[in-house]
Amino acid sequence: MTPPMAPGRHPKPIRPTLDDVESRLGYVFADKALLTRALTHSSAAQGGDHRQGSYQRLEFLGDRVLGLAVAEMLFSLDDKSDEGAMSRRLSELVRAETCAQVASSLDLGAAVRVGSSEAKTGVGKRAGVLADLCE
Question: Between 20 and 30 A from 111 (CA), which of 17, 38, 53, 64?
Answer without folding.
Answer: 64
